[in-house]
Design brief:
Elements lengths: L2 H20 L2 H21 L10 H31 L1 H6 L5 H29 L8 H28 L3 H6 L1 H6 L15 H8 L2 H14 L6 H28 L1
Helix pairs in contact: 1-5, 2-3, 2-5, 3-5, 3-6, 3-10, 5-6, 6-10, 6-11, 10-11
């Protein structure tokens, strides 16, 4: 972004953040479902799942963090759809501002809101017994992966928000993304799955991301898995951004 675009985005980001601060219930709601899942899996199902010597809350937290992000980006699609229907985009068109600044404001707002939700979820996990050997570099690596994953999914949410025919449709696209961690190594080892499911689980993006975060939390070598995780996040981000800008130009032309 050039200086003009950066300045416009900053102003529009302030507008979007005011909506968040005035309705903190969206952040709380985003965090409630993952926390409820964490309680259910740890205290109900955890005793029946063998993950070796590792405590189950440690094992499944990376997957819960990704579900938190997948839940949170639904609100981005909803807010974007609402702005479109309110006519605010037409008003922005009449002003000398960078067109992409509107989208970037929504994306950065999503990033901030999701980071707050992630902090809440990690806090609850600590109360439930989550412990980690990760040092500062490992935590920074985890944060970097989660930020990249959030940006990738948020640009997918932008496409949904711009393309949806109804408010419900704008948010509903996130359901498959929330479900995807269940078909990965997030909650059970992939080796326990039947053949076709195992093949899918081992070659979809969530598994590589979950395994990388889990290794960082436990202080284990991440190997080439971190590059696979970063490649998935970056690839999704680039493709989603390109398609989002194409859809945006068509909507405002």
């Amino acid at each position: 972004m050039n200086t003009h675009t950066f300045g416009d985005t900053t102003v529009l980001l302030g507008r979007s953040m005011k909506h968040i601060t005035r309705s903190l219930d969206t952040i709380i709601t985003t965090a409630i479902m993952p926390v409820a899942m964490m309680l259910l899996f740890v205290y109900v199902f955890g005793g029946a799942i063998n993950t070796g010597a590792e405590s189950y809350v440690n094992y499944m937290l990376p997957g819960i963090l990704l579900i938190t992000i997948a839940s949170g980006i639904a609100y981005t699609a909803f807010r974007l759809f609402t702005d479109l229907k309110s006519g605010i985009f037409e008003r922005f068109q009449s002003l000398p501002i960078a067109r992409s600044g509107v989208l970037w404001a929504h994306v950065l707002t999503s990033l901030v809101a999701n980071l707050i939700s992630l902090v809440i979820v990690v806090g609850v996990a600590l109360i439930m017994g989550f412990r980690t050997d990760a040092g500062v570099p490992a935590w920074l690596a985890v944060a970097g992966i989660l930020i990249l994953f959030t940006l990738a999914l948020t640009w997918l949410a932008v496409i949904a928000g711009l393309s949806a025919k109804s408010a419900d449709g704008a948010g509903a696209f996130s359901y498959p993304l929330v479900f995807l961690p269940f078909l990965s190594s997030a909650f059970v080892p992939t080796g326990t799955m039947p053949g076709p499911v195992r093949a899918f689980a081992e070659h979809q993006p969530v598994t590589s991301i979950v395994n990388t975060i889990r290794a960082l939390f436990t202080g284990q070598p991440v190997g080439s898995g971190i590059w696979t995780a970063l490649a998935w996040c970056t690839g999704i981000l680039v493709v989603a951004y390109i398609f989002a800008m194409v859809v945006y130009r068509r909507r405002i032309s």
